[in-house]
Amino acid sequence: MITLTRLSGSQFVLNSDLIERVESSPDTVICLVDGKKYVVAESVAQVVEAVREHRTRLIVASASRADEGQSRSTLATVTDLAAALPGPEGTRRS
Q1: Average pLDDT per run of 10 along the chain, which is 94 residues long?
Q2: Name one Pfam family in it (predicted).
């Protein structure tokens, strides 16, 4: 789930797995797989980054649970891979 802001300023939480596409026209519009649309204050790049961070947290948490009886190298590898993903502008995160 990611936290977003309506144009009115109120915040809401959205299941990012339901996002089909994000458009900028000029406001950012999030289109869900069921046809619902949300207009948000965040830019397209900010929405993409929020989804990336959310999925990274899920992967790290999953690897951490799976890694409890194994070496910690799996968690380090997943964390390193997530940090190396390109950011919204195509640059690497450090």
Answers
A1: 97 97 96 98 98 93 72 59 63 52
A2: FlbD
In what side-by-side order are the strands of the sheet with 28-32? 19-24, 28-32, 37-40
**What does pTM read for this prediction?**
0.70
Which pair of structure tokens corresponds to residue 70?
């194994």
Please give the full DSSP string across the chain, using - where no structure is assigned.
-EEEEBTTS-EEEE-GGGEEEEEESSSEEEEETTS-EEEESS-HHHHHHHHHHHHHHHHHHHHHHHTTTS-THHHHHHHHHHHHSB-TTSPBP-
- Domain presence at residue 90: no
